[in-house]
User: Fold Sarcosine oxidase from Rhodovastum atsumiense.
Amino acid sequence: MSDTVLRDFSDRPRIGFKGADTSRWLSQQGLRFGDASNRAYPQPDGSLLVRLSPGEFLLLEAGDTGAVVRLQAAWSWEAEAGLCFPVPRRDSHAWFHLEGARVPEVFATLCGVDLRLHRFADHSVAQTSVARLNAIVIRDGDGFHLLADSASAEYLQACLSDALAA
Assistant:
């Protein structure tokens, strides 16, 4: 029996923002992050702010903190957001979470990036291919968040389940 668990977090809140002024606007909203891209930055409420590039971010809400709703309410065309635009990641990306000792081994069968814990540091982000789908992989402690095209969610879940069963 495997101690590795696959969960579908697709019903959880998430949102993206992109544009040249996004880092300034998110900072004004109280989010904390560094300059490095392809990094995840834990927030005080337990959410995870992922910096995908200098001007593109993804917020994964932990539980029901209201962080996504708060950001949606704060952004508007009239606000001082400048060149910062919402990206509805909940509509476009399925969200899975894998946790357990075999996760790096499972990913090794589906992905070309070495996600072993001693190679892929905590809060690292890989924008890569998983099961031939464009994907975002985020290490969060001993677990991994995986986001990919929502239209292919059933296919991806089946691939992950098959790899877990092997």
